[in-house]
Design brief:
By secondary structure, this protein is an alpha+beta fold. The chain has four helices and four strands; from the N terminus they run βαββαααβ.
Length: 101
């Protein structure tokens, strides 16, 4: 299994807006081969810190998604989001290979 976490720090007053965006996400990733799960996590003590958490069967499955046209389309939409403060946020991405369960 392979896990990818993307941490975004948003202005605290815009956290609910970002959460709403993810609650209404396109879900195209859900159809990708090897995709297992998506979650949006909010830091309990720092509500402006949100983590996009995805779980994949293999690293290769994730890489296929990251190289796909759907991935490019979704991330291009994010870059063109009307709120340029949110659109300019660069996530901190961490990738993990599951080595024990």
């Amino acid at each position: 299994m392979y896990i990818v976490d993307s941490l975004v720090k948003v202005p605290v007053e815009k956290a609910d807006e970002v959460i709403s965006i993810y609650q209404n996400r396109s879900k195209s990733v859900d159809e990708q081969d090897g995709f297992i799960k998506f979650q949006l996590l909010q830091n309990d003590k720092k509500p402006e810190e949100l983590t996009v958490h995805t779980v994949w069967e293999t690293k290769e499955d994730y890489l296929n998604w990251a190289r796909s046209e759907n991935f490019k389309k979704i991330h291009d939409m994010e870059k063109n989001y009307p709120d340029q403060e949110l659109a300019s946020i660069v996530p901190i991405v961490k990738k993990y290979k599951v080595v024990a369960e």
